């Protein structure tokens, strides 16, 4: 064969192939050349296609780092082809399923990747998993947005859809198709509960399988998933033979749920328990103190001249002072103590197993700590401030929650009326003041 005829012959094969052919730069994933079928499948012109790369055309190849991992696997498979099921981008903004075979070739001393991509929308010839299972069901599993699985119980084989692998950060050829691959990815704290839910369905006690749990990704991190499945085939004795299911990533909704729960119980500015949640926590602490015959000192704290801070420096500065106070108290107080934002510039502090004299001493130490650590604004300007405090103690003053708060509030009012920057203990029931600070 002449050199000219040889070149024309191979060009005819290249252009006449019924599957898309791509020549790819292994380093950048850029498309160096492609045949007519390639840009026809993608709805593009040749010039437009050559502006793309695997990263922009293949759904699930996220960035250069991800492509480098895939390229490494392609090299590792050589001389065999690297095979996977994926989805290619169409110019109209949609994606279509493809079966891709990628080999390593060498041209003029440089390695290149040669990919043959079969459009599964155009052909009835699909991979073995598609041929050996119910084609319509398997195709639906593969094409669904969520991750899906198909478990053949007698062989133990589990088909994991490309979307499921992508959700967990795996490459198309990774994830051993076994039940253990899935069960070992379930978080240790969830595994027993999830397996029990699956057993309930397999035994026929539940109509379907459903569970929410944490699932480990390839990088070791965890996502929250909602997993649902159903037995789709049983033998004559009613024993399950095959189960299919869907895994949906609910990490974002779980995060929003946790955020809403946090917002419902915590002050958004300081991160402390808010008044509503504070009442619940106070009630539990009080019950514990009464049950075990322990003292519980309640302290209401009010930042002095806080309005002047807002008026002089602005409300953002006032917010900075509130956050500064909460942060300083949290690193200074004992682990058993509880500080919560009661409203405005007012805070409630619970001191478990602490009598009045010890509580006064502790609050005095907090005041000294605050004097040594003024709040600092983003401008670098420092704001020094003080607080007043009113104390009441269970069982000394009362054993009732509202009564303890009222005693502490009355003491705080007196402290502020006395000139602020003061600690006072409630004088309800004729209790002698242990001291002023």
Automatic annotation (TrEMBL):
Where does the UniProt annotation place the signal sequence? Answer: none
Q: Which residues form the GGDEF domain?
A: 294-428
Residue span, PAS domain: 6-55, 133-205
Q: Which PANTHER family match?
A: DIGUANYLATE CYCLASE DGCT-RELATED (PTHR46663:SF4)
Alphabetized InterPro entries for the sequence = DGC-Regulatory_Protein, GGDEF_dom, Nucleotide_cyclase, PAC, PAS, PAS-assoc_C, PAS-like_dom_sf, PAS_fold_3
What single Pfam family name could you report for this chain, choosing any that match? GGDEF
Query: What lineage is on file?
Result: Bacteria, Pseudomonadati, Pseudomonadota, Gammaproteobacteria, Oceanospirillales
Native source species? Amphritea pacifica
Pinpoint the PAC domain residues: 209-262
Q: Which Gene3D superfamilies match?
A: 3.30.70.270, PAS domain
Protein name (database record) = Diguanylate cyclase
